[in-house]
């Protein structure tokens, strides 16, 4: 690809950077993850889950002040992107964040916002 005329063109080598930029498929998956996390209700649910090993819908309802159906709907979206996992114990379903990456992502974003 040619360098646009508006580029500074100060001899900067882009060779190493060009090959490190995420491809379209990965960029789409990342964008979808951030899109799902760009909701106040889901942010509060993710935060609650980051503070506990696992929580059931009832506990999440109490913590975030939402109805069970609203919490379940948001959890379904988070689960669809593999951001949360479930564990069933009888009739209860417990939710937890999928892995430490989600917790780190959330904590870093929270730290950024609070600075």
Can you tell me about this structure?
α3 crosses α6. Helix content is 59%, strand content 12%. Strands 1-3-2 form a three-stranded antiparallel sheet. The protein starts with 14 loop residues before the first helix and ends with a helix. It has helices at 15-20, 24-37, 40-51, 57-64, 68-80, 100-114, and strands spanning 55-56, 84-89, 92-97. It is of the alpha+beta class. β2 and β3 (92-97) form a beta hairpin. It is elongated. It contains six helices and three strands.
Short description:
This protein has helices at residues 15-20, 24-37, 40-51, 57-64, 68-80, 100-114; strands at residues 55-56, 84-89, 92-97.
Layout: helices, strands, pairs:
Elements: H1 15-20, H2 24-37, H3 40-51, E1 55-56, H4 57-64, H5 68-80, E2 84-89, E3 92-97, H6 100-114
Helix pairs in contact: 3-6
Q: What key phrases describe this protein's structure?
A:
single chain, 115 residues, alpha+beta, 6 helices, 3 strands, 59% helix, elongated
